[in-house]
Design goal:
alpha+beta, two-stranded antiparallel ribbon, 7 helices, about 20% helix, elongated
């Protein structure tokens, strides 16, 4: 198997021989990376890239579908703002994002592939978990969860040219403004967020997950639906929703 190495300038705590038979193995200065996945009986496999740091932190970039909003959320807002770490998921969040049903246990449900036989191997049966420091990862994951929790669920806007749904995450006032302008523009197109109409649309099963902190497949509740606040209403906008909110605020 060919092993891809990032530039390494110092000794690493990781032993390449331990991971040479894991699909997608790469090594960097202070981390290793492998291809991982989690399987939903209803929706199939969600694949990602698991990065294990020397500090014990586990992070996953999700590749479940083209343009997954979890790996590159800013792609849906602007091609100017770039936050490379915005799409990192903890293993627990990745398990939830895969829409896997049943009890949560990411150590058993997140898997890697053995290149010798092509079989999926749970993390508990690999040497990867030896480098996992629960306190570090949980702390990092909790921070990520707090960043993702919001009363504003993800929204979708249809492109006027290709009629495809494009996801908008509403985590900041600027992101709310970009979605607001798109939703009120009848001639809005994919090009305005740096996409082309050739980019595949999210699968319907993925669109069902809109970032509710209470329920993965929530159709709208008081925890994720906002009817107007200072973050999603704008005093310089003349639409009815913004005008009414500004008058009554």
């Amino acid at each position: 198997m060919e092993i891809v190495l990032f530039e390494v300038n110092r000794a690493s705590i990781f032993d390449d021989k331990e991971f040479s038979e894991i699909h997608g193995f790469m090594r960097g200065n202070d981390f290793i990376e492998v291809i991982c996945g989690c399987t939903s009986q209803k929706y199939g496999d969600s694949v990602g890239r698991l990065r294990v740091y020397e500090t014990g932190v586990f992070e996953i970039d999700c590749d479940c579908c083209p343009g997954c909003p979890e790996i590159a959320p800013t792609l849906f807002f602007t091609k100017v703002l770039l936050f490379p770490s915005a799409g990192k998921l903890s293993p627990d969040e990745f398990e939830k994002h895969s829409l896997r049903q049943g009890p949560r246990n990411w150590k058993n449900h997140v898997w890697v592939t053995d290149t010798t036989n092509g079989k999926k191997v749970p993390l508990t049966k690999t040497p990867l978990l030896r480098y996992y420091k629960e306190q570090s990862t949980e702390s990092d994951g909790s921070k990520g969860q707090q960043q993702r929790r919001s009363v504003h669920r993800d929204e979708f806007v249809l492109c006027s040219l290709c009629n495809k749904h494009r996801r908008f995450q509403l985590r900041t006032k600027e992101e709310c403004k970009i979605h607001h302008d798109a939703s009120t523009n009848k001639s809005w197109t994919c090009f305005e967020i740096g996409l082309t109409c050739d980019v595949e649309e999210e699968r319907e099963c993925r669109r069902a997950s809109r970032g509710c902190p209470i329920k993965i497949l929530c159709k709208g509740c008081t925890s994720c639906v906002c009817f107007g606040c200072r973050m999603c209403r704008f005093s310089d906008c003349e639409c009815r929703a913004c005008v009414d909110f500004t008058r009554n605020a």
